[in-house]
Specification:
Blueprint lengths: L12 H5 L5 H6 L5 E2 L9 H8 L20 E3 L2 E3 L1 H14 L6 H27 L6 H14 L4 H10 L4 H21 L8 H13 L4 E11 L5 H16 L4 H8 L10 E5 L6 H7 L6 E8 L2 E12 L9 E9 L7 H15 L8 H8 L2 E9 L5 H8 L10 E3 L3 E11 L9 H27 L2 E3 L1
Parallel strand pairs: 1-6
Antiparallel strand pairs: 2-3, 2-12, 4-5, 4-7, 6-7, 8-9, 8-11, 10-11
Length: 461
């Protein structure tokens, strides 16, 4: 869930850029999403009771889940301690600002134990195939993690300890991700083939779909069996509630999703509804950008989906415009009250109205004590959704309304230039082939891990 070194390979294009990039830093930014009503699922409990001849009124004498009686396990001889779980759980709690209810922590502990078991199985299988990650490479990856927090490794060690975690926990996760990626590249990717005819078929379908909607989708996939289905659905609903309360979808996907796209925060990339399983496609077409839906039953489990973005196939999108912007910002002194901030923001807004084009921005900024920063080649799509809608309708020389907070101060953006997109081109054959290969590798990787779980000797303590 943190930045690690990626390996150069055509497999996993997104993973290649960074495996599980910026787990904590992304999560701490709090990517909030607004939810839509979760789909309900018939639990079929009466049928199960009849088949097992169970009494209607069941009294449970104590907690009796044999798999989680104590949150420790021995996986093919490798011990997972309670400390291992506590330290990994601390990362999740930190990523959500510490706002995790006690009952949710218990559910998270169960999921973290499952994740650690999978991680252990992946490392063991890689070692059985003579794949080992150089400790120096792990250290380099850890240094990059610390650098994302503008800290040295030593400082980051201390920070993790204050959060109840440790560098060893993150380094173990880095090792697992790198080892598994290399194992898939050796044992699966060479046996995945995509023909030129298949690529041509995709290009033809893209051209035929020109102008139709496509979505950038995030997915959290949780595998389920008939025996644990109800528990998995409950876990999925708990994840949705945490995300609705401000948790990061990407962080939860990295931590809990069992799809290979977990490595990139669940990001499926740009897809058309026809490319998704029907259950997910039906939900996606009814959703707006920023909404989350689920749990949705799919083959082998359930999925949660998050609409990250939306556009038209092979059609120029105004949000792909490149902007030249000037940002004027004023910070509030520490201890500023809400009333004082509002008054200062109003004064700032009045001064901004006097600006006639970017040529006056520096002069006005100097008069009001504002910091002025030039930003060129900013893609409109990369800005927060609220600002996208405002900037779409601004002409060169116009400014946004003031925005900010007591902590961050108040600021405006002035449009100094705009380069509209000329056309939208289809992905080239190499990109299409890489995507098809990735999809097939991901599917086989899921089966591979399932088989490792089935064959493992796991003792729960």
């Amino acid at each position: 869930m943190l930045p690690v070194v990626s390996t150069s390979t055509r497999m996993f294009p997104a993973v290649r850029s960074a495996l599980r990039t910026l787990f904590l830093s992304t999560a701490l930014l709090g990517v909030g999403v607004q939810g839509v009503t979760a789909q309900t699922v018939d639990d079929g409990g009466d049928i199960a009771s009849q088949q097992l001849n169970l009494p209607q009124d069941v009294t449970v004498f104590g907690k009796s889940d044999p798999n989680v009686r104590k949150a420790t396990a021995i996986v093919n001889g490798r011990i997972i301690t309670g400390t291992d779980i506590d330290q990994r759980l601390a990362l999740i709690i930190t990523a959500n600002g510490g706002k995790v209810a006690p009952e949710e922590k218990e559910r998270l502990r169960v999921q973290v134990l499952r994740n650690l078991i999978d991680e252990t199985l992946q490392i063991q299988e890689a070692a059985a195939n003579d794949i080992k990650v150089d400790p120096a490479e792990i250290e380099q990856s850890y240094e990059r993690v610390a650098a994302n927090f503008r800290q040295s490794p030593t400082q980051f060690d201390a920070y993790l300890r204050t959060q109840g975690s440790s560098s060893a926990s993150i380094k173990r996760q880095i090792e697992g991700e790198l080892a598994w990626s290399r194992l898939l590249r050796r044992n699966i990717q060479p046996f995945v083939n995509v023909s030129e005819d298949e690529v041509k078929s995709v290009v033809d379908r893209l051209n035929a779909a020109k102008g139709s909607d496509e979505f950038r989708i995030g997915e959290i996939y949780l595998s389920a069996t008939p025996e644990n289905r109800d528990q998995i659905i409950a876990n999925a609903r708990n994840i949705i509630e945490q995300i609705k309360q401000g948790g990061s979808f990407a962080a939860y996907a990295r931590q809990f999703s069992e799809a290979s796209t977990a490595a990139v925060g669940g990001d499926l990339g740009w897809v058309r509804p026809a490319q998704l399983p029907p259950e997910l496609a039906n939900a996606a077409v009814e959703m707006q950008v920023g909404q989350i839906a689920g749990p949705i039953e799919v083959a082998g489990g359930v999925s949660l989906i998050y609409v990250m973005d939306k556009r038209k196939v092979l059609t120029a999108d105004p949000r792909d415009s490149l902007l030249s912007l000037k940002q004027l910002s004023v910070l509030f002194p520490q201890g500023t009250t809400k009333e004082q901030a509002s008054a200062k923001a109003a004064s700032f807004a009045a001064a901004i109205k006097e600006i006639k084009g970017c040529g006056q921005a520096n002069e006005v900024g100097a008069k009001i004590g504002a910091d002025v920063v030039d930003n060129d080649n900013v893609k409109l799509r990369d800005l927060p959704p609220q600002l996208q809608e405002i900037l779409l309708n601004l002409q060169v020389g116009e400014a946004t309304p003031p925005f900010g907070s007591i902590t961050d101060g108040v600021r405006v953006l002035i449009v100094c230039g705009r380069d509209d997109p000329v056309s939208a081109n289809a992905p080239n054959p190499e990109q299409i082939m890489a995507q098809l290969e990735e999809e097939r590798v991901n599917k086989r990787a899921r089966i591979y891990l399932r088989d490792l779980r089935r064959d493992a000797i796991i003792e729960y303590n």
